[in-house]
Write a structure and sequence with these properties.
The protein has about 375 residues and is mainly α. It has a domain of about 260 residues. It contains 16 helices and no strands.
Length: about 375
């Protein structure tokens, strides 16, 4: 079949790094309950949040990186590189899984707080460790805050075939993904979780973000550019974002909710994150369109020093994300056991982001050192015999 996708330029798109770094910071802050600093994240001002951005950018990046490889070097090479990346994420998930459970178990014993184990959904591991470990290895058991990596792993592992088709039939692939999303919502499809329930991020629904991101990278953005630049979309987007802000605030403040008709409030609260409610999907798509419109690839702001730490965190996304999961538990415990003052909330948030940023800079430096050519020692002249 003829290649119909439009490959993105080879130059690095720093917008992806900036947005992914911001998403990692926001996910860390959102994972700290009762933290005033997480009012800075987008989840408080609309239907979508950093998780939506993370999955969309992951799909965009997967196409950005591996599509050209698949075309230049063949399906086998490109597909196996995708599988290798999925394996790397899986290994990181398992390492984080073990450390996470050990961290919570130790902290619960150290501070004599058994509720901590229930709060983070790891109590079952102490009751049945072998079965729980097995379920964790097959991604069925997921402690609290560790739900997005299993989704990422699954989508990356299945993406070689999807990408092969998308390169040849991009619009058909997107349409099939959207139909799967609609069917999953209609029929209640989801994967079972251990010990009960289902996946928090329903992969049959959230796959659409990943596929949409890949489609957007392979010419979709260009196809939609007349719409993205239109005045009509700008007006509709503004009105919808204001509406989303009001409905989200109503979910935070009962006084505002009391001013609304019950049917209207109930239609948007609670926000259906698991099955990716259509109003949530629309909210994020509007944000993606606006960012594309007002933040072009060559935007000079991407070179501003103030954005450099966020960009570096986005470039080392996997390590920063895992560190954020670990640090969020410690920050939460400090707020519970030491102090929950506003000053302490700000302190643990700032220190956590600082540590994530230091890790990102270290990994960036470490990778440059590993790739640097080895200098050969200078030849020394032999002394005359």
């Amino acid at each position: 079949m003829t290649i119909k996708a439009v490959l993105p330029p080879k130059v690095r798109d720093y917008r992806l790094d900036l947005l992914r770094g911001f998403a990692n910071w926001a996910i860390f802050l959102d994972h700290i309950p009762n933290n005033i600093v997480n009012w800075l994240t987008q989840r408080n001002y609309g239907f979508s949040d950093a998780a939506d951005m993370f999955v969309f950018i992951s799909g965009y990046t997967a196409s950005f990186v591996y599509a050209r490889m698949m075309l230049d070097r063949g399906f086998i090479v490109g597909g196996t590189r995708l599988i290798k990346r999925a394996w790397q994420i899986y290994v990181a998930h398992i390492v984080l899984f073990v450390i996470y459970i050990a961290e919570i178990g130790y902290l619960a014993q150290r501070y004599r707080d058994p509720n901590l184990q229930n709060e983070f959904n790891v109590a079952g591991f102490l009751d049945n460790p072998s079965q729980t470990l097995f379920e964790g290895l097959i991604l069925a058991f997921k402690p609290v805050n560790m739900d997005v990596l299993p989704l990422y792993i699954l989508l990356m592992a299945l993406y070689p075939v999807v990408l092969w088709v998308m390169l040849r039939r991009p619009n058909l692939t997107l349409a099939a993904s959207f139909l799967l999303y609609l069917a999953a919502r209609h029929y209640g499809w989801n994967l079972a979780a251990y010990p009960s329930g289902s996946w928090y991020f329903n992969p049959f629904c959230w796959q659409f973000y990943f596929i949409f991101g890949g489609w957007f990278a392979l010419g979709g953005a260009g196809t939609l550019m007349p719409l993205i630049r239109s005045r009509g979309l700008l007006v509709f987007a503004t009105l919808y974002l204001v509406f989303a802000l009001v409905m989200t605030m109503a979910g935070r403040f009962p006084e505002l909710a009391g001013l609304m008709p019950t049917w209207l409030y109930d239609a948007f609260n609670p926000n259906d994150k698991t099955n990716l409610a259509p109003y949530r999907l629309l909210h994020f798509m509007i944000l993606a369109f606006l960012i594309t419109r007002f933040m072009p690839r060559d935007w000079s702001g991407l070179q501003w020093p103030v954005f450099r730490p966020v960009i570096v965190c986005g470039q080392q996304s996997l390590e920063v994300f895992c560190a954020g999961i670990f640090l969020a538990v410690i920050a939460h415990l400090i707020l519970v056991e030491v102090s929950s003052s506003v000053g302490m909330q700000i302190l643990v948030s700032v220190v956590g982001i600082a540590l994530m940023t230091v890790l990102a800079y270290y990994r960036s430096w470490s990778k440059r050192v590993e790739k640097a050519p080895v200098k050969k020692p200078a030849d020394t002249e032999r002394a005359p015999g």
